[in-house]
Structures are given as structure tokens and as C-alpha cells.
Amino acid sequence: MVSHGMRTGNNGLMCKIGPSILNADLSDLFSESQRLLDNGADYLHLDVMDGHFVPNLTFGHPVVKCLRRKIPEAFFDMHMMVAEPDKWVNPIAEAGANQYTFHLEAAEDTLELIRRVRETGMRVGIAIKPGTCVESVLPFVDKVDMVLIMTVEPGFGGQSFMKDMMPKIQLLRSKFPDLDIEVDGGVGPNTIDLCAEAGANMIVSGTAVTTSDNPRHVMSSLRHSVEEAIQKSQLER
Ligand SMILES: O=C(CO)[C@H](O)[C@H](O)COP(=O)(O)O
Predict the structure, then answer these.
(1) Among 99, 163, 190, 208, which has the minimal tally of Cβ within 10 Å of its Cβ?
(2) What CA–CA distance (Å, rounded) separates 183 from 202?
(3) Nearest by Cα to 134 from 41, 89, 199, 60
């Protein structure tokens, strides 16, 4: 598998758009995923839900493995909304994932979990729910590749964006200029500016992209907004 660096050059960050296929037609996961990639997605954000950590079920490693066979190149960003994140590290790695993002709230031994994910060769992400304070993730930030700030309660697509999560992104960005910060939940053309100004550089957008007649246009306008905000903040430094 090709290696997928998520950073660029010596200026630090690059904006990436990773649509979530949660609200797409899951009976045709391959075509839906390919359509998003063909229309400019930088990566696929794959939401794994186990019915315990969140009150919903999606799919697991067998489905990811099948999708990987049909899509050998794309970056698979796994958002593991599961109660036992340690249990799925190896199956998800063997299925061909590139990044394993677990929830801090579900981790029993966070450092050990980070070590285990790294050992597989996957990038490591930590996600926090809206009710979790950003300070709780700070001790781990220098050991991971990405922090995911949830802007909805995890479990369902199509919810309203929680703009009061923006201070979490601002705080992380001020302390960690080179960190990949992902935002997920209710993100679309009307909410992207807030995320971009706060400092997010990895943008998950589900419903806004998958239900659009013109996903290429939606993704390129999301990207444009974030790139402008990154450039502006670099000029201000
Ligand atoms: O993690 C998620 C829900 O738990 C989804 O990735 C997220 O909600 C994306 O969908 P939308 O953009 O429709 O909110």
C-alpha cells in the first residue's frame, strides 16, 4: 500500500477533505466511496459504531477489508466509535486502514493503546466527544498524529453543528501549530469558516457532501475556505 503523508512541505499543514460515508447509500459502499474520491475527496472517513459506545451500528473490519480490495490506494481514516478500541486495532490494521482514531472516553490505558496502534503502522488519532474537555487530551497530543474534535454527539450523521466546540480547536492550534486537527459533525459550507478560522485542517463532512448533486463543488469550496484561513494565520505569525 502506498504511504499517505498527511502533511506537506516545510510550512506544516495542508488542508484535507475527508467525506464521511455514514449517510451515503451503504448498500453500494464501493460506488459511493469511489464517487467521492473521483470528485476530489482527499481521504475517506469511515465511521465504525458498535451499538455500545454510541447508540447506533454501522460496519466493521470485514467491510473495510472488502472496500480496501476494491479501493487499493485511498487513505482510510477510521473513526472508531467503539467501547473497546483496543480490541479492534489489529483487525482494522489487517483490513488495510491507514489511521486509527479512538475515543479518549473509551480508552482504558491511552498510552498503551497509542503504542499498539503505532506498532501496526497506522497513524494514531484521538477523538473527544463534545462533553469532554480539551485539557484531557493535552497529555497525549505529542504522541499522536491527529486530534479529532467532535462537533456533534457521536452516533448519527445529519445533526446540527456545535459551534461552542471551536475554543477547543483554537486552544489546540495555539499550542500545537503543526498538529493535524480534524473536525467532524455538521460541517458544511455554512459552518466551515468557523472551523477554518479556529484552526482545523482535516475536515470531515458527511451529509453536506453525500447529499449534494455536486459533491465536487462542495468539497472544493470547503477546501478553499480552510486554505484561505491557514494562509491568513501563517501570514499573521
Ligand atoms: O462521526 C459521525 C457521527 O458520529 C459522522 O462522521 C459525522 O456526523 C458526519 O456526518 P454529518 O456531516 O452529516 O454530521
Answers:
(1) 190
(2) 6
(3) 199
- pTM to 2 decimals? 0.94
CA distance 53 to 83: 5
* Residue 5 domain flag: no
pLDDT digits (tens, 9 = 90+) for 50-64: 999 999 999 999 999
DSSP state of 8: B
Task: Give residue-wise pLDDT tens across range 127-151.
Answer: 999 999 999 999 999 999 999 999 9
* Nearest-atom index, ligand 1, CA of 209: 12
Cβ–ligand 1 contact at 157 (below 6 Å): yes
* Bridge partner residues of 79 (DSSP): 47, 101
CA of 126 to the centre of ligand 1 (A): 16
Counted residue by residue, the chain has a size of 237
Question: Helix/strand/coil (H, E, C) string of 131-146?
Answer: CCCHHHHHHHHHHCCE
C-alpha distances in Å from residue 196, one per residue of 16, 47, 120, 167, 180 = 11, 22, 31, 12, 12
Q: Domain of 23: which CATH number? A: 3.20.20.70
Range of the domain at 151: 16-236
Number of domains present in the structure of the chain: 1
All cell numbers assigned to 186:
455538521
- The residues annotated with a catalytic role in the active site are 47, 184
pLDDT tens per residue, range 89-125:
999 999 999 999 999 999 999 999 999 999 999 999 9
